[in-house]
Amino acid sequence: MEVVIVPDARSGGELIAEAMAQLLRRKPDALLGVATGSTPLPVYEALAEAVRSGAVDASRARIAQLDEYVGLPADHPESYRSVLRREVLEPLGVGMDAFMGPDGTAEDVQGACRAYDSALAEAGGVDLQLLGIGTDGHIGFNEPCSSLASRTRIKTLTQQTRVDNARFFDGDIEQVPHHVITQGIGTILEARHLVLLATGEGKADAVAATVEGPVAAVCPASALQLHPHATVVVDEAAASKLKLADYFRHTYANKPDWQGI
Question: In what residue span(s) does the Glucosamine/galactosamine-6-phosphate isomerase domain sit (predicted)?
């Protein structure tokens, strides 16, 4: 596993955006897997700036969703489809016809999960999947003790997650859905390149468990150790619990093997 330690969140965003840009120059119709939340915003902002400056053309890129609320209309401003349209597709000049995501409003949610897994495979698979990490080591909505072989499926949100997400719904927890569809860990591991971004001291324990701990369901992100090409980009605060931090600084020196995508 490559571990790249950067000075701050902006530097991490710029580094990963350049990896995406390199991929799009080699493969203009690459399928990029994207995540929501505040952590990946510096990535999207840096990549959008590269598009505006003419450094890269993302118009032929395809975008795949990591997770989605169940029961929330696709055009609801807080559906993850809407969030990604605002934060990723529109700034990159990518049309909704190039967007892939699970149908959170389907009558048969389980069938929608299976259909999304099949659609990703039929599209040739995700070329680069961007991930965040929770303080408990979760990726997507795969909470601790999720199966490391899990496929896209429905998950029940914890009360704390609903409380945390209420800020996006005018502070009203009753508006926050109880369930989500998430790519499973097994599905995530099928992407050709996994890139995890973590910033802040609050993520330090989870990063250490992911990189240096055992592969265990109690830390779902530790499954990245099983992947042939996983890159973890962390700022100094998130790297503060790594025993091998100096080794990683010397080995990768902000120059990961993006060409292995």
Answer: 11-225
